[in-house]
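ARCHIVE CARD
CATEGORY: sequence design from structure
SOURCE FIELD: tokenized fold
FIELD CONTENT:
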């Protein structure tokens, strides 16, 4: 096993601590790289007692307005202010070192929800409904403090085991794009998120956006959980343009169809409404008929693959 000894948990020498909830002087070893991110890597570290942590190391990039596009310092600050939540990945430590930010979290070996869907296929409707409820719980926790995540995606939900039920549960991670609404209101040039999950108003520099953008992204996540494929690929995609124009029904007719509950079709259409004012609130999504009614009682309708 290739190892690298670093002071931890695990800030390098002369690092500037931002969050230090469990200080220690243990030596940690670099086990392997878990993934690459837009501005760095995510690595697995282990100490001499066998404890594992994940460390996201990011190069800090700026954009106009002297604000970081994907700012791990803000992510650490937000998590320090928020109470813990069972579906929000905690920050164990955060520090700066040589223009890099080190963000330390527990290691969840089951990996991303995206990888689960990609390798094992679409989820059952019951499991997708269960996961969506957990995802909404995490996002509601942020929204209750007037903070939007603004980068919701299957890649940013990890799988873990619920200690009581022993069943899979989802955990939201990566608050690098998250911002309090007061920031969004004062920095209109800020445009976060992944293009294939982002709401139309987020991608349009002439539009303002708010917490409703997270509802749209959760709609995309739900679509991908039950269909395996994404509803659109990019803001220039014809499918994205049609969704933005409110032509979801016509888009369905143009694509090969898959039978799903009619109420799920309605829920997806509403969550991905191009008009943020017409999207349901997260509480309304939880109370939606598809979320609360036995799927065996629902009629089916067509949805595109």
């Amino acid at each position: 096993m290739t190892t690298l000894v670093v002071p931890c948990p695990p800030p390098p020498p002369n690092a500037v601590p931002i969050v230090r909830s469990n200080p220690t002087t243990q030596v940690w070893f670099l086990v392997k790289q878990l993934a690459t991110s837009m501005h760095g890597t995510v690595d697995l570290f282990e100490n001499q007692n066998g404890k594992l942590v994940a460390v996201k190391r990011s190069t800090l990039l700026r954009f106009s307005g002297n604000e970081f596009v994907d700012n791990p310092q803000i992510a650490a600050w937000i998590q320090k202010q928020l109470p813990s939540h069972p579906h929000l990945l905690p920050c164990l430590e955060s520090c700066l070192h040589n223009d890099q930010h080190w963000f330390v979290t527990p290691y969840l070996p089951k990996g991303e929800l995206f990888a689960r869907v990609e390798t094992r296929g679409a989820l059952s409707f019951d499991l997708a409904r269960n996961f969506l409820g957990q995802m909404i719980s995490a996002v509601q926790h942020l929204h209750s403090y007037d903070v939007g995540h603004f980068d919701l995606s299957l890649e940013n939900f990890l799988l873990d085991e619920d200690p009581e039920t022993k069943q899979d549960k989802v955990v939201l991670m990566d608050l690098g794009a998250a911002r309090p609404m007061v920031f969004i209101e004062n920095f209109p040039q800020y445009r976060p998120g992944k293009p294939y999950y982002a709401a139309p108003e987020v991608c349009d520099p002439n539009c303002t956006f708010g917490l409703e953008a997270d509802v749209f992204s959760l709609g995309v996540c739900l679509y991908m959980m039950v269909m395996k494929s994404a509803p659109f690929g990019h803001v220039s995609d014809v499918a994205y343009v049609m969704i933005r124009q409110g032509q979801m029904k016509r888009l369905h007719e143009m694509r090969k169809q898959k039978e799903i509950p009619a109420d799920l079709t309605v829920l997806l259409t509403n969550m991905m409404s191009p008009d943020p004012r017409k999207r349901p609130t997260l509480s309304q999504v939880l109370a939606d008929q598809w979320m609360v009614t036995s799927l065996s009682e629902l009629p089916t309708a067509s949805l595109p693959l």
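CARD ANNOTATION: Residues 113-291 form a domain with the Transferase(Phosphotransferase); domain 1 fold (CATH 1.10.510.10). The CA atoms of residues 241 and 280 lie 21 Å apart.
SHELF: design records, drawer C
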